[in-house]
Amino acid sequence: MITAERVGRASGPSQPLRNLNRFFRRHPRAGLLTLLTPPVAWLLVVYLASLAMLVVAALYTLDPTSQKPTDELTTSNITDALSDTNVWSLFGRTVLVAMSVTLICALVALPTCFFLAKIAPRWVRRGLLVSMLLPLWAGYMVKAYAWRAMVSPAGGNRFAAAGRGGGGFMESVLGWTPGYGRVAVVIALVYLWLPYMILPVYAGLERMPTSLLDAAGDLGARPWRTFRTVILPLLLPSVAAGSIFTFSLSLGDYILPRLLVDGKERVMFGELISATLGAPNLPLAAAYTLFPLVMIVFYLLAMKRAGAFENL
Amino acid sequence: MADFVASTTQNNDSPTSPAIQLVGLRKSFGSGEHAVHAVDGVDLSIAEGEFFSFLGPSGSGKTTVLRMIAGFELPTAGAILLEGLDVTRAAPYDRNVNTVFQDYALFPHMTVLQNVEYGLKVKGVSRSERRKRAAEMLEKVRLGSFGNRKPNQLSGGQRQRVALARALVNQPKVLLLDEPLGALDLKLREEMQVELKAIQREVGITFVFVTHDQGEALSMSNRIAVFNHGRIEQVGSPREIYDHPATSFVAGFVGTSNVLSATLSHELMGVAAPHSVRPERIRIVRDDAVGADVVVPGVVSDVQYLGADCRVRVDLDDGSHLLANVPSDGLVGVAIGEAIRLAWPRGAAFTVADTTTSEGGDQ
Fold this sequence. Notes:
Helices cover 73% and strands 1% of the residues of chain A. Chain A has helices spanning 2-9, 15-26, 28-57, 76-83, 85-119, 122-133, 140-151, 169-174, 182-207, 210-218, 223-252, 255-261, 269-278, 282-305; strands spanning 61-62, 69-70. In chain A, strands 1-2 form a two-stranded antiparallel ribbon. In chain A, helix 3 crosses helix 14 (282-305) and helix 5 crosses helix 9. Chain B has a six-stranded mixed β-sheet, with helices on both faces. In chain B, strand 4 (77-82) and strand 5 (85-86) form a beta hairpin. In chain B, helix 3 (112-122) packs parallel to helix 5 (156-168). The A-B interface holds A 209, 211-212, 214-222, 225, 229-230, 233-234 and B 70-72, 91-93, 97-99, 101-103, 105-109, 118-119, 122-123, 166-167, 170.
């Protein structure tokens, strides 16, 4: 239909459309505004407004009889949360887990990506990259339960049925398992978030000219020194970029950790928020969320200094 | 400067060993029938203090030989000796050679001064000493005031000189330069040619210079090795290479040359082997005053004006053609399509081995 019309007039778009084109060509700023308004509005409403709501919710008062928040504002939720040492120690443990996961991800990603980007033949590189990104395709819950079956100890539980001994996959194949607990949580989180570290580090190494490594060796640097003085400083922004993902994703995770500690202890801060929300105490739960929120803001600022955003 | 004198006298302790010796050097990539022989049997001896050039088209193996001398590639067969010492399998950091890379390979996160002192720092030279030597070297390459800049704040020519300073400050036995002027524009390249040569004379270090630019090789080198298809076609001084090319490939690659087929050579000069004649040795004759010169008739098919000279293309009866460079003012009246005669002294033609497998090499 449109084609027929165009052929008929032999003059491209219709008159109103052409007027619109002319308007935007004469007023480039108006064009920019039209393009940017929808995504900016979306950002403002969905992200910033919901964050603002969180802060406002933390100021609500819980009505003791109805157990419902009222819009009478108070700071007592926040002061309660801040003065509770148990909350602080749980948050400390969570940050420790997130930091361990990030550190281990970086330690695994660096040599792996070096091999991928600088040593492996092309077909090996493709195969390995795909296989390392493949876990991203599996559902989160599937992976969480799979890890429960992996680490479950001897004499364990229903997930261990597949194992030859009494234990899960690690117990029967490796002869060792961390069992349920914090170690298992860290291992499983490393598995979950490693691709987010691999990708930026690989991209960073890919961009680094091999002649820089040749030059360091040529000037007398042994491999370790080349790594320390040339590769690592140049890759720092990439590692920082990857760590934003691994750190924040680990910090907020609590479902997989809950499965992997088998109810023995509370490792992740998110569990506390979730439990408080179910209490139900929405204002206090909102106050708790400010802990990771502030933490992430500081983390992002630190990573910005490390040059992470020049790399994204 | 004193340091370089000292290192030169040290080198004289073993006057019998050349700076670099390559023995039956080979490098193949891949294996079996698909193997590519990038370097196919190279024997070479480079003397102490020489400015030695590897000249050849891209893919001729010259850069691979350089990378094997530096230690970045391991040879498939053969040996590399540095001052008589076998370093064939030694790691790059265990060889007393330094490299100036084609892309300069300056460390982008370090300042110019940190780049230059990197090698000294690795070797454990004290802070004050290495600062002093790095600053001196930067002075020598006329970048004395640029020490605190980052490489990305420098121009191409300046980066080039930093790369040179970074390598030279280590006082290597041999400096390897991998097409170091390739990324510079013509004017800067010509300046750097003069400057490089001057620096080499001053420091007295053996330079091995890889280039595909024959003008560069001719103007800078003491000796040149011409590479083609992983082999050396000829080694000699620039004058030898230019005046007496050993093979048809060298004759064609270095400067412009006419290669006469064996049949034509036999007909004209009585020797049944390919000959090479430089265009500037050929003149157009209109009378019979040719004496003992070789004379061949032909038809002018093209005239290229080059300024002082003109390059005249003359088609011969056997279907081949010759190029002759003649002074522009002696060319009055020569028109395309005119039948003329070309002549050159007997001594101007040299027999060459026929090695041209494909027209003009693989470039």
